[in-house]
Amino acid sequence: MAYNDGISVVIPTYNGEGLLRENLPSVIDALESWGGEYELVVVDDCSTDGSRAFLATLPRVRVLVNRVNMGFSRSCNAGMLATRYPVCLCINNDVRATPGFVAPLLSHFADPTVFAVTPNILVEREGRNQGVVTALYGKGFLKGSFAALDESGGERENLYAIGACVAYDMGKFRALGGFSEIYTPYLFEDVDISYRAWKRGWRSVYEPGGGVYHYSSASIGRTRKRQKRRIYFRNRFLFHWINLTDPPFVARNLFHTFLRLAVSFLWCDFTYYAAFGDALKRFGEVQRLRRAALPHLRLGDKDILQRTAKHGR
Fold first, then answer.
1. Does the pTM of the predicted model rise above 0.90?
2. I need a labelling partner for 80 at 20 to 30 A (CA). Which of 7, 86, 240, 248 fits?
3. Distance from CA of residue 137 to its chain's centroid?
4. CATH of 7-214, one of 2.60.40.10, 3.90.550.10, 3.40.1700.10, 2.60.40.1120
């Protein structure tokens, strides 16, 4: 099956009735205006609102319902691994599509080195374009930097493809085993799969020819914010332990990790210690994932950083 024969679309959702009502029609309109074959799968992660009743009114939407709440990566895997077209667009329920963004994404997949493609992903409230992700590196850690909202530029290679709106080559996605569920419930699964693809020489690309709007929530309660910070640091540890392979990068990461552990008590940053402990509990799984990835290694950390930095390719 050729890459332009059709596209699969997967949308994970949890209690997102309002977001689905607001944004899903724009995705359907974009697919219809494109004119090609498509399938649209919504994975409902045990919603208790009216999401399923609303989705039942849409004839082109297939709904998969999780038996238990599974989180982002597992929900996406359930939907994406059940799709039938060679390219799958993973898109959040808080993303509004614009007409004409589908065809430019698909045009890249004739290149066998392409793994993932993102369009312009405009977050107006934050003044950022999440479709462009340049690599930064400091204190032993890799980090993606988004472009400014009004920053113009052509096609480029990204450090990773953000999961809010990304088209994946499903053959490569399946070869990588889908999103790694070690990061459940959320954060870093999109970073991880793009980086694992890069290690095999499979590229993440930004396509400037189309766009969507991303309306991520700005309000996080104090308790949830603490929880999210703990998950963020836990998953950042896991990502680097699994994926760094160049000895200087590994050494710097370990040095700065233990340096911060040695001093974080001075400003009572006990969340950092809790996150480190959470990550250590998963160290056996980290070792298994590293062993599985090493035989496929084609590019090192320095190579990827050079290609996806501000003035990379």
1. yes
2. 240
3. 19
4. 3.90.550.10
